[in-house]
TrEMBL record:
Gene3D superfamilies in the record: Cytochrome P450 (1.10.630.10)
PANTHER family per the UniProt record, alphabetical: CYTOCHROME P450 7B1, CYTOCHROME P450 FAMILY 7
GO annotation (BP), single: bile acid biosynthetic process
This protein's name: 25-hydroxycholesterol 7-alpha-hydroxylase
């Protein structure tokens, strides 16, 4: 946008309602009814109140879980490697962040092979995400190849009967699940579509941000050295060691103190 037009945006803030736009866009993109419909009283407000769970102490718990899952993913990948191998940087970031984020939010299935399921889901998610900008600008999904069938397959992962057997769901997911279950007028498909939309919101920006941060550090060795020194100093001050046989625990307050990172 032309910076000289910002004043018009400010003056017309009431007409340029982002919540109205996002509700309509999300409903169309992820194929579920709008939260603001009269047949879903208080649903939109209830969903917004949930975001308090992602602040304060609940956020500490979520941060700890993400830290644990990141290390699990890295250790598993290292255990499978027998030699150096080359991989596309963005695909590497996507693989790590998607799996760790999914496990942090949606826990695990006690029966299914979690890694294979997540790998299949990630491949489908990547294809859907590539078409997401077209869906946002209202390009009919029928014109976007197999995007519609991919969306249907992704939504199926979150059907209520599958969500009910998952273990270690994040508190925010449990809360969303409970709220959705209170609305009998919502189909099981609609509830699953809501969960898929939340997953996209969780990793849709996180993965690119991780890639660009890693890209910058690789391109600037002096920045990488400074970040490593900062982390090493924190680990030493908390009596922790860095290595494949050690688990690292960093609190949210400690993460906030890492100004370079």
């Amino acid at each position: 946008m032309d910076p000289t037009q910002f004043q018009y945006v400010v003056r017309n803030g009431k007409k340029l309602d982002f919540h109205e736009f996002s509700n309509e866009m999300a409903s169309r993109t992820f194929n579920y009814p709008r939260l603001s419909e009269s047949k879903f009283p208080q649903l939109q407000d209830s969903m917004h109140k949930i975001y308090k769970i992602m602040q304060g102490k609940p956020l500490d718990k979520l941060t700890d879980s993400m830290m644990i899952n990141l290390q699990r993913v890295f250790k598993w990948k290292f255990s499978q490697a027998t030699d150096w191998r080359t991989e596309n940087m963005y695909q590497f970031c996507c693989s790590i962040m998607f799996e760790a984020s999914f496990m942090t939010l949606y826990g695990r299935d006690p029966v299914a092979d979690g890694r294979n399921v997540i790998s299949e889901m990630r491949e489908k998610f990547t294809k859907f995400d590539a078409k997401f900008p077209y869906l946002v600008i209202n390009v009919p999904i029928a014109l976007l190849g197999d995007t519609k069938s991919i969306r249907e397959e992704l939504i199926q992962y979150f059907m209520p009967h599958k969500m009910n057997v998952r273990r270690d769901l994040a508190e925010v997911i449990e809360a969303r699940k409970d709220i959705l279950e209170n609305y009998d007028v919502l189909r099981d498909y609609d509830k699953a579509a809501h969960h898929f939309a939340f997953l996209w919101a969780s990793v849709g920006n996180t993965i690119p941000a991780t890639f660009w941060a890693m890209y910058y550090l690789v391109r600037h060795p002096e920045a990488l050295a400074s970040v490593r020194d900062e982390i090493d100093h924190l680990l030493q001050s908390t009596g922790q060691k860095r290595g494949p046989n050690y688990d690292i625990h960093i609190t949210r307050e400690q993460l906030d103190s890492l100004v370079l990172l």
